[in-house]
Amino acid sequence: MAIPKVCGIETEYGIQVLGSADANPTSAASLLINAYVADVATRVGWDFEDESPGRDARGFAREGSMPPEVETHLVNTVLTNGARYYVDHAHPEYSTPECASPQSLVLHDRAGEVVLLHSLEAARRLLPPGEEIVVYKNNSDGKGNSYGCHENYLVDRSVPFARIAHQLSSHLVTRQVYTGAGKVGRETPGSSSHQVCFQISQRADFFEEVVGLETTLKRPIVNTRDEPHADPQRYRRLHVILGDANLSEVATLLKVGVTSIMLLLVEDDAFGERDLALANPVQAIHEVSLDPTLRQLVELANGEKMTALELQWELFDLARKHAEDRGLAEVGPEGSGEEVLGRWEQTLAALEHDPASLRHQLDWVAKRELIDAYCARHGCGLDDHRIAALDLQYHDLRPSRSLFRRLEMERLVDEADVEAATRNPPRETRAYFRGECLKRYPQAIVAANWDSIVFDLGEDPLRRVPMMEPLRGSAAHVDTLFDGCGSPAELLRRLGA
User: What tens digit of pLDDT does each residue of 403-448 get?
Assistant: First the structure.
């Protein structure tokens, strides 16, 4: 039976130093994060005790596979909103706190953008005259290098991983018709620099395997990292690495919300006899991305052929039936799943009849309209160097430079709520306990991670508080625990009792 879809997003931001010929991106990312922590936060380090990125959900690793390295020597801190903010592979990375609904995750993903903006302001005061750090919420530098936007979903451990991989891959390949951030050009090995085109997804070019452990080389559509950050007997964490980094709040809601619904179907074994597995998922992910007309046919393993949009309609019909039969309570609080299902249907219908009508909702549609208008106005093609600059500027976080911010994109969250979410954790998950401890007792906390906090009460030994249940430690669970608790020692005494 399906379990609640606690979820999160990890975003690696592109980084550039203007006005410096020899800037080091790792140093720039470290400066960015250190400046933010010194300005608005108390430094609490990350606890690497339970990091195990090499554990494979299949029980084995392919010969020659290379799991991600754990970079313990770089800046790595935990914020009072329960998030993790650190340097990963020369990029500033913001990992949202655990969220109990797609709507909450949209809010906290946006909070990550604001944290980066505050970081830019703090770093600007430390840089030499004439230098400026710029960050981009995108996935490609246009030179063959890609950086990720990873999603995480709580999944029932009893569900065979092979079933997850088999039944989910078609969705992951085709959902880019509404989650894609859009990109000019191709970066697949062997593609010609003269073959300039507009494609739907920024990440599609970089996927070469169907299933695997890697995240930076030979990237797989279904990642097998088995690092639950929770009770490993009950849960697994599905680590989805193929998504684009979205500026559109609607696209983020659909990306996380629809994937959560699809996981309910997998857990409840709701596909029945309908097998929608693709014959060649890697080929299909490239083909779908390269066709913004949405008419490209992909082949299923059973020989059927359909467009990505038609396949998404098939999945929607299964989801609607499941919602009617069993509901969508596991997606979030009352109405959360229904809102996602309604959005999904509206978006598919609009893509079917008039994709341009989604210019205010979807990143790739908005960017394509922007670029087409520029080409028409200036009489140039996609191979013009100004178009590459335009593409990048869409993702610039700086409000004065961001092309995204100049568009009338639909907003789902209030800016005051976003600002508050940079300081305060979601109330429905264990992130609340983590964040409140960091706010109340920062000097007594040595380190923290997703499933524990380490306290130093000034006497040996250090005290580790485990948090193995993602939905415990919420405000409903611990607010009475905090009431009248004047010290960390008193908190730990109450926890022990």
Answer: 999 999 999 999 999 999 999 999 999 999 999 999 999 999 999 9
Q: 371-408: string of b/e by CB count within 10 Å (b at 16+)?
A: beeebeeeeeeeebeebeebbbbbbbbeeeebbbeebe
Only one residue has tokens 């909702």, namely 361
Q: Dihedral of the CA atoms 346, 428, 416, 369 (nearest 10)? A: -30
Contacting residues for 69 by C-beta, under 8 A, at least 6 apart: 53
Exposure class string for 211-228: b at 16+ Cβ within 10 A, else e = bbbbbbebbbbbbbbbbb
**Residues designated catalytic:** 88
| Per-residue pLDDT at 62 | 53
- All domains of the chain, ordered by start, with CATH? 7-419 (3.30.590), 427-496 (no CATH)
What integer is the mean pLDDT of 241-245? Answer: 97
* DSSP one-letter code for 268: T
If one counts every other C-beta atom within 10 angstroms of the C-beta of residue 362, the result is: 28
Segments of 248-313 assigned E as strands: 297-299, 305-307
Global model pTM greater than 0.90 = yes
What local confidence, expressed as pLDDT, does residue 57 receive?
Answer: 72
For the cut 70, the answer to whether the pLDDT of residue 71 exceeds it is: no
- In one-letter notation, the amino acid at residue 22 is D
Question: What gap in Å lies between CA 47 and CA 50, rounded to an integer?
Answer: 8
